[in-house]
Amino acid sequence: MTSDIRKLPPGFGRLWSAQTISSLGDGVTHAALPLIALTLTRDPMALAVVTAAGTLPWLLFGVLGGALVDRWDRRRTMWVADTARAALLATVAAAAALDMLSIALLAAVAFLLGLGGLFFDTAATAFLPDLLRREPALLERANSRLRGAQTAMSGFAGPPAGSALLALGRAVPLLADAVSFLLSALLVRTLPALPRPVPEARESLLRQARAGASYVFRDRVLLGLALRPAVGNVAFLAVETVLALFAHDRLGIDAYGFGLLLTAEATGGLLGAGIASALGRRLGTGTALTCTAAVEGLAILGLAAAPNPYVAGAALGVCGAGMGATMVLGPSLRQAIVPARLMGRVASTSRMLAMCAAPFGAFLGGWLATAYDVRTPLYAAAGLLLTMTAVTASMTSNRRVEAALRAAAPEAHTATPPVAEHTTA
């Protein structure tokens, strides 16, 4: 493969900048919104409603949203979604400045932000392989950079910035996130216009959505890629539900130490995203995915048995590295092998499965901790992850992955190159 093929096109830099700025805003709101809700009520159920509202769009409209993205121009979908989210947050910031906030309003905002995120994320996932002409090496490099920036902005920089901005007033972090969405929309508008995928025969939206979902379940590689985050979310939410209690009661960690514990996981995530491409080249993508999944399970097992905070922090760091690498390799492979006309639906179906699985993990973690011991959910999560690794290893083996890439190669090679760049919609 020649070096010029491996160069990321200029348009990727703008897409990366847009998503990085937007991730910083997401981190600001992620920290600020629950704290704003806390100024309005101390009712745990009311606070839970605000949190849950943000996940509902994926549960209700995930597959249908993917079908719409496959019908629409993906660049336009991204900048319209970000412009709408900017306007929404600016309106809510005005409500905060006028002291007109309520829990119902915050829940509606969380829902609409989640809906905008559904369309933007799905469109961005479908746009990237078109921009990079489905070149697997480029997709891994691009996703590594996108994932690293997202972790740094939403995991490190955004939350403390959100807390600091909140001290200046409830409207300030909301307005800051609105500006981040507006800047992202402006950058996306400058991306190259790409040809739309060849349209399918005119069918109902529901039928097209069903075709996208069935495509995932019929393909063993895609099903294996979808099962990993779905089962993983059950396990990780079981851990997350009891992690603060486990850290306090079993490890003697205070609030500051708990923040450091989460930072260790995010640091591992950055490292994993950075080395994902090298792992894929050395081991083969299929074997690398199996290894990173096994690392996650063994790391959670180490966390469950951790005798002190240092071992727990190291275990979470290793787990974060496995997750970071998985979240680069898995989506890159999916983007390389899925036909352009189905990319939105396949991506949204996989994301919806993961989102639907999360509440089961939270319930499982709470029940096991109540019925047995606070370490029990961690051991159960490790068992789930290792079982999932064994089940999906053959589904995403190197042999199957290479066959899927060969089958997808004709579409990549005949893809129409990007047309001349311009800034109009």
Offer a few descriptive terms.
single chain; 425 residues; mainly alpha; Growth Hormone, Chain: A; 2 domains; 15 helices; disordered N terminus; disordered C terminus
Provide structural commentary:
With 425 residues, the chain is mostly helical. The protein has 2 domains: 10-193, MFS general substrate transporter like domains (Growth Hormone, Chain: A, Up-down Bundle), CATH 1.20.1250; 205-425, Up-down Bundle (Growth Hormone, Chain: A), CATH 1.20.1250.20. 81% of the residues lie in helices and 0% in strands. It contains 15 helices and no strands. The protein has helices at residues 10-40, 44-53, 56-71, 74-97, 103-131, 136-166, 171-189, 205-218, 220-249, 255-283, 285-304, 309-337, 343-371, 376-393, 398-414. Helix 6 (136-166) packs antiparallel against helix 10 (255-283). The two termini are 34 Å apart. 53% of the residues are buried.
Tell the overall outline.
globular
| CATH architecture designation of the largest domain | Up-down Bundle
Largest sheet: none
CATH class of the largest domain: Mainly Alpha
CATH homologous superfamily of the largest domain? MFS general substrate transporter like domains
- Overall structural class, as computed from helix and strand content, comes to mainly alpha
Alpha-carbon distance between the two ends: 34 Å
Q: What percentage of residues falls in helices of 4 or more residues?
A: over 70%
- Tell me the number of strands: 0
The amount of beta strand, in percent, is under 5%
Mean pLDDT: 87
Oligomer: single chain
What is the helix tally? 15
Low-confidence stretches: 1-5, 415-425
Number of domains: 2
